[in-house]
Amino acid sequence: MARGRKRLRRSSGPVEDPESNEEDEEGQSTAPSTQTPAEAETTDQERLEHALDLARKKGSSAYASYNPPELSEQRDKFRRRMIAWQCKICLKYMNRPAYDTSCGNLLAHADRCLVKQKKKA
Fold this sequence. Notes:
The chain has about 120 residues and is an alpha+beta fold.
């Protein structure tokens, strides 16, 4: 049986010479800068007030399973204080970044607590 030809590897892109400084200018970077969310200018207290509004308005059934939020000592990746939601069932705190508008993890935690509570009963 005859062997076929081997495929040649494709290059993943042009290889740049690390010694080459032709395109580099001092003070300019080609790497994208890390962008913080639009709420970066808000204070911890303003973010807490926003979370309290969410809890009061109860736009989701997730907030019914938690006590009013507090400021946590834990920091997010932008070095801002996170919002702590205390579960009414297990009394554990769930820390969420203030810019995270999804309540999916709060719902999932509350559902797990309800299942555990039903198993105990």
